[in-house]
TrEMBL record:
Keyword Heme assigned: no
InterPro entries: CruF-like (IPR007354)
Source organism of this protein record: Hymenobacter tibetensis
Higher taxonomy: Bacteria, Pseudomonadati, Bacteroidota, Cytophagia, Cytophagales
A Pfam family assignment: Caroten_synth
Protein name (record): Carotenoid biosynthesis protein
Top-level division of the source organism's lineage: Bacteria
Keywords: Membrane, Transmembrane, Transmembrane helix
TM ranges: 25-43, 49-68, 75-95, 115-136, 143-165, 177-196, 208-226
Length: 227
């Protein structure tokens, strides 16, 4: 007969422990990929081998991130699709007109293109919008205040990213000058997407989001520091 004094873990406790294990595994995978990329790009004599994995790294990051989104309902799916579409087509408008971000064109690093824009760009806009939107939810602010904070987080990451993007041919600016218009355009588009994020009706909680933003920020800031 079982010992009546034996203590069994409550289901909620067991579920929480399993969730924490999943989180640690996901963080470990992301850390491994980003540290490998950082070492390869920062210290290799020929970084081209590591650059070919940039789209894969982005897809892996977004896949793990979205796996920690609870209750992926139809509204959440719609948010993801609209955000990716908006992000992609503003880039199409950007390279064709130069009015949104300045005069630039994409290199080969980000993979296959359509209309002159890498297909992966929409995924990148989704990752940044979703991650920063989740982070801003931690603040006791009204919806528009959180949207502004998340927008500044997106622009801040872009500031760290830009020198690296040029160095490794993600994209190139005319006359090799990053215009202020780029950050202004990023701010406007990001704010629109953040308002859309806040108005979309789905659970806005993700345990992996803070780690994703932190590892991205440290990755690009570290490469910028190496010069």
């Amino acid at each position: 007969m079982p010992d009546p004094t034996q203590q069994y873990p409550a289901p909620a406790t067991t579920q929480l422990a399993a969730q924490q294990r999943r989180l640690r595994i996901a963080q470990g995978i992301l850390l491994l990929f980003h540290v490998t990329g950082f070492i390869g790009l920062g210290f290799s004599q020929d970084p081209s081998f590591y650059l070919q994995f940039v789209p894969l790294n982005l897809l892996l990051t977004v896949g793990l991130l979205l796996a920690f989104q609870p209750q992926r309902n139809i509204t959440f799916v719609w948010f993801c699709l609209v955000t990716m579409a908006v992000g992609f087509f503003v880039e199409v408008a950007g390279i064709r007109t130069g009015l949104l971000f300045g005069q630039y064109e994409y290199g080969p690093t980000l993979g296959s293109k359509w209309l002159g824009v890498p297909l992966i760009i929409g995924v990148n806009w989704l990752m940044l919008t979703y991650t920063t939107g989740i982070l801003a939810r931690y603040l006791p602010l009204p919806a528009f205040g959180r949207a502004l904070v998340a927008t500044f987080l997106m622009v801040g990451l872009d500031v760290c990213l830009e020198p690296i993007a040029v160095r490794y041919d993600f994209w190139q600016w005319r006359f090799d000058v990053i215009p202020f218009l780029n950050f202004k355009g990023w701010f406007i588009v990001s704010l629109i997407l953040q308002v859309f994020f806040n108005r979309s009706d789905f659970v806005k909680r993700n345990d992996l989001a803070p780690f994703v933003y932190m590892v991205q920020l440290l990755f690009f800031f570290g490469l910028s520091f190496l010069g």
